[in-house]
Amino acid sequence: MNPVIFLLLKNSVLLRGFKLKKEEKLKKEAQSKVLNINVREVLRSKLPHKKVPEFLIRYLERIVHQDELNVFLEEQEGISGIEFVEASVHFVDVKVVCEGLDELPEGRYTFVGNHPLGGIDGMATGFEVYKRFPKQGIKFISNDLLSNIENLRPVFIPVNKIGHQSQHRTLPQRLSEAYAAGEQMVIFPSGMCSRRVKGEITELQWQKSFISKSIESNRDVVPVFFKGRNSNFFYNLASFRKFVGIKFNLEMLYLPNEMFKQRGKTFRIKFGKPIPCSTFDNSKTYQEWADHVRKVTLALGKTM
């Protein structure tokens, strides 16, 4: 799954009811909410005073694969947590070959990785970590859009960047509690999928919070490199959008389509050696340490 799908889901929830008495019907509907992607309704809610051309609506429905995703979501009703993550990986039909994961000793880790695809790479990486440490389980740190997907709430810690101030104030405490728990933490510090920079497809700058939280919770950091890329169209669109000064992340609309282009592919994931949290001393700032771990992670890709 990826941010566009989650955004559409957030704005489009379908209540399924039955021909029961009024009270029973309301109760049943409250217990049986089925996530449903509806581009038309999202556009209507976001642009209530504008008429969106029908051809544009149909185009958007096609590039987000509305019909296919809705069938999948209906089939997964009642499935949540790691089972939903596994179902998502199987739905996209990607396979992965891991290197270095089985060599990791038991422990609590912060897994930090690159984010080349913007969705299914994160799901696949997290599921592989879970299979290695099934008793501990995993937690993803993600943007708050994902918290609207009830199926994913058991394994996702939402980070609200644009929400209410009260939610911002509670974020440090929520992160500290997550890191202090026993699950393996799976994080993609760039917060966005890779872009083409100066002709090279690479990671954007990593956020530094995983350094301080790993020190605080005494977790060693495991760098993870996922080998993959999106289409040239995606990177060219991102470059064009930036060149002409469009602030809206236009290329994000195409992430579902990019995800479907990965169907049937096999990807390689390389897990590096754990970096002791004691490494992150006062010789560098937290941001400089985050940049260092980013370089170590990208270097793994050159050895694959």
How do the strands of the widest beta sheet line up side by side?
A: 3-11-10-4-7-5-6
**How far is it from the N-terminal to the C-terminal residue, by CA?**
26 Å
Discrete helix count: 12
Q: What's the overall average pLDDT, rounded?
A: 85
**Name of the top-level CATH class of the largest domain:** Alpha Beta
Largest sheet: 7 strands, mixed
Radius of gyration: 20 Å
Class from secondary-structure proportions? alpha/beta
The name of the CATH architecture of the largest domain is: 3-Layer(aba) Sandwich
The proportion of residues forming helix, as a percent range, comes to: 40-55%
Estimate nothing, just give the exact number of structural domains: 2
List keywords for this structure.
single chain; two-stranded antiparallel sheet; 7-stranded mixed sheet; 43% helix; globular; 304 residues; 2 domains; Glycerol-3-phosphate (1)-acyltransferase; alpha/beta; 12 helices; 11 strands
Plain-language structure description:
The protein is an alpha/beta fold and 304 residues long. The protein folds into two domains: 3-73, no CATH class; 79-301, 3-Layer(aba) Sandwich (Glycerol-3-phosphate (1)-acyltransferase), CATH 3.40.1130. 43% of the residues lie in helices and 16% in strands. The chain has twelve helices and eleven strands. The protein has helices at residues 3-10, 22-31, 39-46, 54-63, 66-75, 82-92, 120-132, 165-180, 209-217, 232-243, 255-261, 286-301, and strands spanning 13-15, 33-35, 95-99, 109-113, 138-143, 156-159, 184-187, 195-197, 200-202, 220-227, 266-271. The strands form three sheets. A seven-stranded mixed beta sheet has the order 3-11-10-4-7-5-6, sandwiched between helices. A two-stranded antiparallel ribbon has the order 1-2. Residues 13-32 and 161-166 have low confidence and may be disordered.
